[in-house]
Amino acid sequence: MSATRICALSELEQDTALRVEVEGVPMAVVLDGNGEVHAIGDTCTHGEVSLAEGFVDGDTLECWAHGSAFSLTTGHPLNLPAYEPVPVYVVTIEGDDVLVDPAVTRPTN
């Protein structure tokens, strides 16, 4: 597989998650307060709900349903009830295009 354009950088709102699906893989894409773009698995590992509907706080995305916050850089949950990480995808910026390859994840350790 190769990287797929998911949106324009200018379409992302700072500290807001955007739900996208790339080749059948749901992702939450976030432009954080430092201007970095992150893509993590969109499904909370505790409750099977969309993380993109949650709340961005710094470098975390909090599940709206049960309150587990996930690191945007590692995918690890930072509090219970979730205890399993979500995948973190490699994001590439080319001009104004945001690209993600759903087959390429960053290590979560």
TrEMBL record:
InterPro entries on file: Rieske_2Fe-2S, Rieske_2Fe-2S_sf
Gene Ontology MF terms in the entry: 2 iron, 2 sulfur cluster binding; metal ion binding; monooxygenase activity; oxidoreductase activity, acting on paired donors, with incorporation or reduction of molecular oxygen
Matching CDD domains: Rieske_RO_ferredoxin
Residues of the Rieske domain: 4-100
UniProt keyword terms in alphabetical order: 2Fe-2S, Iron, Iron-sulfur, Metal-binding
Matching PROSITE patterns: RIESKE (PS51296)
Coiled-coil segments: none
SUPFAM superfamilies for this protein: ISP domain (SSF50022)
Name of the protein: Non-heme iron oxygenase ferredoxin subunit
